[in-house]
Amino acid sequence: xxxxxxxxxxxxxxxxxxxxxxxxxxxxxxxxxxxxxxxxxxxxxxxxxxxxxxxxxxxxxxxxxxxxxxxxxxxxxxxxxxxxxxxxxxxxxxxxxxxxxxxxxxxxxxxxxxxxxxxxxxxxxxxxxxxxxxxxxxxxxxxxxxxxxxxxxxxxxxxxxxxxxxxxxxxxxxxxxxxxxxxxxxxxxxxxxxxxxxxxxxxxxxxxxxxxxxxxxxxxxxxxxxxxxxxxxxxxxxxxxxxxxxxxxxxxxxxxxxxxxxxxxxxxxxxxxxxxxxxxxxxxxxxxxxxxxxxxxxxxxxxxxxxxxxxxxxxxxxxxxxxxxxxxxxxxxxxxxxxxxxxxxxxxxxxxxxxxxxxxxxxxxxxxxxxxxxxxxxxxxxxxxxxxxxxxxxxxx
Length: 397
Fold this sequence. Notes:
The protein is α+β, with helices and mostly antiparallel strands. The protein has helices at residues 8-19, 28-37, 97-113, 135-141, 201-212, 215-218, 257-278, 297-311, 328-334, 369-385; strands at 44-48, 52-59, 64-70, 120-127, 153-163, 167-168, 172-175, 177-186, 190-191, 226-235, 241-242, 245-254, 281-290, 293-295, 338-346.
């Protein structure tokens, strides 16, 4: 596999982003850095969604194409030993959002100086708060695409812990939808020596958790992906005190909306049923919700062809992934096709058991290759899509 190395100024920009990570909703320095990096282009740039940026680059008639790059970091203490490691204590770019951002900045610079290679309008979506699932909606609610009109397609890419340059893209369901709830069970407490005088929330909460484990095995078609997980459980303060409350969180993941609906219906039925059986109160509050990511087949084919042409290898078609991403919000809200792909960023010389995966404090993308692959992929797909004039007649920008 061959690809051009990213320019030195783009690599320098990447290292600066990596050294100065910011948590979701607090990407103030990152926002300013991106704005400064694009100041030499003809992009029309505005703050959007709080700490995000919308950068519009126009070049005559043609399609309107959005390209998303998330910018936020994670609450981790970096343990990579890199010379440009995080200088912000307890905050780290452990999911490659610095790679995504630098790649899109580099692509917009390249497109600005190679206008003969494309025609249309590119909207750079520099998104905050992907890790909290709030950033895409914040930008959409703040008028993203108001000045360009509805886009013809939304594109995106994401790093993975695969060997450097390995490309993963597939039509149809690509990432799972996710919903999570906080469940509070309330009864009456008492002394541990007199449980008959209490109405134990803990016992009912345990019954709820146990019964929830039967949903995917007994109510969902085994050939359709579904995951239901209780990840936290809190009750009690002392060994001789029966707690009056138990609290746990549960998440559900699925690709297909009808499967997600079955999971939710089963969860609510079980929680209310067990509460009634135990004579306790239950309060169920949704704490997060992300739709599944669906890659439009036609747009997926165009992107895969462009990636094949620039890298010389056919991208792999992986199984759908159980992770989630608020990239799905753009297609959901705007009613337009979208496609996102993954690309490997780790040194292929490393044994696989030595490679740290996303969200690991040791996650260290290749220092030059990661951004180079991201930049080459972004340019390839964007120039291919921004030449499809015959496909888009509604946006004479």
